Structure formats: C-alpha cells, structure tokens
Amino acid sequence: MKSFFVFFVTLLAALMLEAMPLPESLVWYRPEWALLVILYWVIALPFRVGVGVAWFLGLMVDLLQGGIIGQHSLTYVLIAFSCAIFYKRLRMYHRWQQGIFVCLLVSINQLVGFWVDHYLGNAEPTLMIFMPAIVTGLLWPWSFVILRSVRRIYAIR
C-alpha cells in the first residue's frame, strides 16, 4: 500500500507540474513531466508499471490540457511499451545516454502531438516542437536521481 501511495504522489506531482502556468516566452521549454515520471517507473519497475498506467496517465494529461482525448494516451502507451522492451538495456546505459534515449522518445510524443494539432489546423510547422524533448532529456539525470532516492527511501520494489 505504501508503494502505491508513493507512486501515486509522484504521478500527481508530475500532473501538477504539467498544469503549472508558464509565461508565453517559456511555453516551448516546458518539459514533459508526466512522461518523464512514467518513463522512470517503467524502467525501474517494468513488471508493476506498464502500458496500462501509461494509458491512464496519458488520459489524465489529455483531460488536464483540454486536448483531444486519447492523443497523449496513444503516445504514452507506445513509449512505455518501447521502454518496457528495452528496460534491461536502458539500465546499463549512463544517465546521459538514457537522457538521449528519453529525448528521442519525447520527440516521438511531440511529433504525434504536432501532427494531430496540424491536422486540426491549430499548429504551424516549426522546429520548436522538439524543444520540450531536449529539455526533458536534459532533466532526465536529475529526475532519475530524485525518483530513485524516493524509491529507495520508501523501499519500493
């Protein structure tokens, strides 16, 4: 029960960070907090956290951001599945190498989101859509250390 509560609190904190308002000049630099947290938990506990949790968290992000229902759910499921497949290999990489992989996965999320928004006529083509992926990849080593210490303090296995 304690492990579920800690896991739930980390996901709730990620959703709160997703909802945090930013100035217009910093919107392109907003990291994908929810995806960052779900990636950590899928890599750390792949048999307990998987595509179902990723789908639910994606649905929560869709509701939070007021977008199309299922857009983030689809990409989160694809990303969580690919992480679940490669979790043993990812654990062997250095943190900066994991950050590059996270950057690539978040880029997929950003690209799918852009395609949907562009199809609906809400987005113009720009390379700035990849900036959240770069920021998320750069934040990966620190968020990994923080979430790992939380997992170790509460002995979540």
Describe the model.
With 157 residues, the protein is mainly α. The protein has one domain. It has seven helices and no strands. The longest helix has 26 residues, at 95-120. It starts with a helix and ends with a helix. The model has no long low-confidence stretch (mean pLDDT 93).
Order of helices and strands: HHHHHHH
- Could you give the distance between the termini? 12 Å
The count of DSSP E runs of length 2 or more, i.e. the number of strands, is 0
User: Judging from the principal axes of the Cα atoms, what is the shape?
Assistant: globular
Low-confidence stretches: none
* Percent of residues in helices: over 70%
Rg of Cα set = 15 Å
Mean pLDDT: 93
Quaternary state of this entry equals single chain
* Beta-strand share of residues: under 5%
Largest sheet: none
Number of domains: 1
User: Helical segment tally?
Assistant: 7
List the helices and strands and how they pair.
Elements: H1 2-19, H2 33-44, H3 51-65, H4 71-85, H5 87-92, H6 95-120, H7 131-153
Helix pairs in contact: 1-2, 1-3, 2-4, 2-7, 3-4, 4-6, 6-7
